[in-house]
Amino acid sequence: MTIFAFFLWSSAKVAVITVMMLMGIAYTVLLERKLVGRIQNRWGPSRVGPFGLLQPLVDGAKSFLKEDLIPTAVYRPLYLVAPIISLGCALIAIAVIPFGAPGMGPHGFDLFEISNINVGLLVILGITSIGVYGIALAGWSSNNKYSLLGSLRSSAQLISYELALGLSLVGVVLHAGSLNLRVIVEQQATLGAATWNIAGGGQILAFFIYLMAAFAETNRSPFDLPEAESELTGGYHTEYSSMKFAMFFMAEYGNMINVGCVATLLFLGGWTSPLGDLMPPFQSTVLSALLPLFWFVLKVFLFLCLYVWVRGTLPRFRYDQLMNFGWRYLLPLAILNIVGTSLWLAWR
Amino acid sequence: MHLILFFLFAGFCLAGAINLLLQTHPINSALSLIVVMTSLAVLYLLLGAEFLAIAQIIVYSGAVMVLFTFVVMLLNAGREERTLGSRAASRIGFPAVVALFAILATILLHVQGLGAAHLGEGLSNAPGQSNLELLSQVLFHELLLPFEVTSVLILIAILGAVALAHVEGSKIPESERVAQK
Amino acid sequence: MSFLQHDVPLSWYLLLSAILFSLGVVGFLVKRNLITVFMSIELMLNAVNLSFVTFAYQWHEVRGQIFVFFVMMVAAAEAAVGLAIIIAVFRARSTLAVDRIDLMKL
Fold first, then answer.
1. CB within 8 Å: A133 and B57
2. Which residues from C are below 8 Å from B72, CB to CB?
3. Which is more confident, A339 or A101?
4. Integer Cα distance of A300 and A256 in angstroms
């Protein structure tokens, strides 16, 4: 493959995946509104298009067309940069996530992953840790006490739970012996659902720690204290409106999708089917390319439904409860999980 | 490709470092330092040190600099003031720094046998052996004791930070929570 | 398309590291805010790290990278303690200008 063809294929891949990600974000919003509506015994959006399916497009157009207000007291450069950092970090993380079988393109080109690197998991954690800046700077530059309180809360929450999140993944990494996401998935695929890390891998405790930490990490209910409307009016994005607010909104849902992808890859067997290698490979290339994609999307979709379900049913925590939970329960449990996993691996 | 990437990110590094000096508000300086550190991570990647590149992003850009921005926000430190001392420092400092740079550059450029960096080449040219494995083998076999001692050092640093910034009868400020990273 | 295959001499990396180190020294001398002075120290540490990685690449020696790893860990500890000291100083004197923090007693 010449360098020119490689460049062409890669840019096409990046463009397609970015558009898919943006569509995914738009329809995750719709999924949430529909599901929460059903949980609360109402219909949710149903007027625009069949079943309200065109609602995200209308919402997007609305945020674009609204007047772009910049309050006079804000610190302008950071105020403008903060939503870009937030959305950028949410969109970049998809670059290292493999969502289909390896190869598949011409000359063994990886069609279903932007870049396959051997520290993929760490890249995702690194990008998440950069994402803190978007929220911290938004709150500080807004020059508003609600914004500042919301952003301080949010940054402290993100940083505290990042620790539990990172430690909960160590068990999986020990198990696979690699930080490459493809290796981690392929190591789980041997016996299908029985060898997924959540079941046969014995990482069910790690999965629950990851789940809790991920809810906090994406600022989602029941840990959505940074934007607790009843006390902070809107948290770090109080002063934001129109497209800039929409960028924060999209970043939140983008992070949800990223977290769902990571959970799928690390605990739920990634793109492999629940039967794993037990099922004979298909003869048709199209089917063997599309079926992994289907499994991956299905798993991420179920994870997102879980997110919405929790949001629709649980009330919000208090801030000190949140911090206590993170530091006193999740962190020791995560360390316990690491010790247990390494003892088990050494025993075997 | 290597040349383009090197010039791009070396340019970002230098621009960030110069901006750090020119800005008067600490938060702008902190942000330009983040640009420097992230570009340095890309340069590490070009030199085949992918683990260090990511560690640089997680530890420096993600933890240390968050701590800095937090402290700037917490203390709400305003613009820097020009004082008598800064004029004296710039008068003596700049010639001294130029001399220091000249010495450093001469020494570094006199290192014998410096080669050129190829893209996609790491520490060992053996296929299938990643930089991460090499690093962890040395770190956890030969240098296990220093590694453990460093973790004790970090623990002491956390305790020291809590003891220093803790005020009797008040809640622990946010910065210690960050410090525990 | 010959520029795509062009290699970068390692001396350029070393030169970049020297420039960054010097800029760090300039910042340390010229800046008058305690936090920015501290940031200049971090810049110098980073510059040294770059030359460590470059030399590790040149001599195919993993210990150069290990050194960077330790520098990072110590820098993290140093930042935690240093910023705690800065907070304590600010509490006691409510200023961060280095020229005004020149007395041992309050």
1. no
2. 35
3. A339
4. 10
Asked whether residue C23 is assigned to any structural domain, the reply reads yes
Span B133-142, average pLDDT: 84
Taking the C-alpha atoms of residue A153 and residue A132, their distance in angstroms, rounded to an integer, is 11
More confident residue, B181 or C69: C69
Q: Which residue of A96, A115, A159 is the best one to mutate when testing the B interface, meaning the one whose CB has the most B CBs within 10 A? A: A159
Distances (CA, A) of A106 to A1, A101, A109, B60: 9, 14, 6, 39
Is residue C88 a part of any domain in this protein?
yes
A3: chain B residues, CB-CB within 8 Å: 1
**Segment (H or E) for B61:** none
Question: pLDDT (tens digit, 9 = 90+) per residue, A268-281?
Answer: 887 877 776 666 66
Number of domains in chain C: 1
- Would you say A225 and A157 are in contact if contact means Cβ atoms under 8 Å apart? yes
Tokens of A38: 């059903």
Q: What is the pLDDT of residues A222-266, one digit of tens each?
A: 887 767 666 777 777 788 888 888 888 888 899 999 999 998 888
Q: What tokens appear for B98 in the block?
A: 């130029």
Q: What integer pLDDT is reported at residue B181 of this predicted model?
A: 44
Q: Determine the Cα–Cα distance for residues C24 and C31; give it in Å rounded to an integer.
A: 10
What DSSP state is assigned to residue A276?
G
Cβ of B34 and A133 within 8 Å?
Answer: yes
C106 located within any domain? no
Domain extent, residue C64, equals 2-100
E strand map for chain C: 8-9
- Which residues of B are less than 8 Å from A125 in CB distance? 58
**Which is it for the CA torsion B25, B28, B33, B36, positive or negative?**
negative
Predicted pLDDT at B82: 65
What is the chain C residue with the closest CA to B1?
A: C4
Section A42-64 average pLDDT? 84
Closest residue in B to C54 (Cα) is: B47
CA A80 to CA A76: how far, in whole Å?
Answer: 6
Question: What's the CATH number where C43 sits?
Answer: 1.10.287.3510
Q: Could you give the angle at the alpha carbon of B144 between the alpha carbons of B139 and B148, nearest 5°?
A: 110
Q: Is A130 on the interface with B (CB under 8 A)?
A: yes
Whole-prediction pTM: 0.86
Q: CB–CB of A119/A204 below 8 Å?
A: no
Residues of B in contact with C97 (CB under 8 A): 80-81, 83
Number of CB pairs < 8 Å for B and C? 262
Per-residue pLDDT, averaged over B74-84, amounts to 68
The pLDDT tens digits of the residues spanning A181-223 come to 888 888 887 777 777 777 777 788 888 889 888 888 888 878 8
Q: Is residue C78 part of a domain?
A: yes
The single-letter code of the amino acid at C85 is I
* CA-wise closest residue to A24 among A94, A111, A79: A94
pLDDT in tens, A119-154: 888 888 888 888 888 888 888 888 888 888 888 888
Site from B24, B68, B133 to mutate, C interface, most C CB atoms within 10 angstroms: B68
Q: What is the mean pLDDT of residues A325-332?
A: 88
